[in-house]
Automatic annotation (TrEMBL):
Entries under PANTHER family matching the protein: BIFUNCTIONAL PROTEIN PYRR
Name of protein: Phosphoribosyltransferase
Keywords: Glycosyltransferase, Transferase
Residue ranges constituting the Phosphoribosyltransferase domain according to the UniProt record: 8-147
SUPFAM superfamilies assigned: PRTase-like
Family matches, as Pfam families: Pribosyltran
Molecular-function GO terms, alphabetical: glycosyltransferase activity
Amino acid sequence: MSSKKTLILNKDQILQKSKRIAYQIIEDNFDEPALVLVGIADRGYVFAQRLQKLLLEIDPNRSVELLKVTIQKTKRSLESTTDLPVETVKNKVVILIDDVLNSGRTLAYGLGVFLNVPLKRMRTAVLIDRSHHQFPVFSDYYGLKLSTILKEHVEVLLEEYDNTEDAAYLS
């Protein structure tokens, strides 16, 4: 992996992309009175919190719930926990959120959490989609679609989690 970092999104661009995703979510779900944002820990959950805030600013009359999913990403099988019972999303529109979509494994595991729960609709949202999908998982909402080579790494820094200014780097 290269030690050289290239800035691909700065703080203002991340905010702009986040707002665009929030508007897309509202447009796609204009007739839904309630949405459930499911953030994948850790940065996906921080990103979900931001989207929740933006959605409520845009449409304060809509209910926007937040659920946190923690996935053991290094395991070969699904091991996860949620901060609320998964049954709370029953018959609702669920948007699964992460910071970066690379192979699709993390989002596939995130989808697996809800396989036994009847949902109205399931969508995915990511800040950056790298397009290196090994699993049949794609982003319905994304801030930036980025073509990279496999050995490159995308790092997203979010102020609430990393204690530094928002940024996304390619290295």
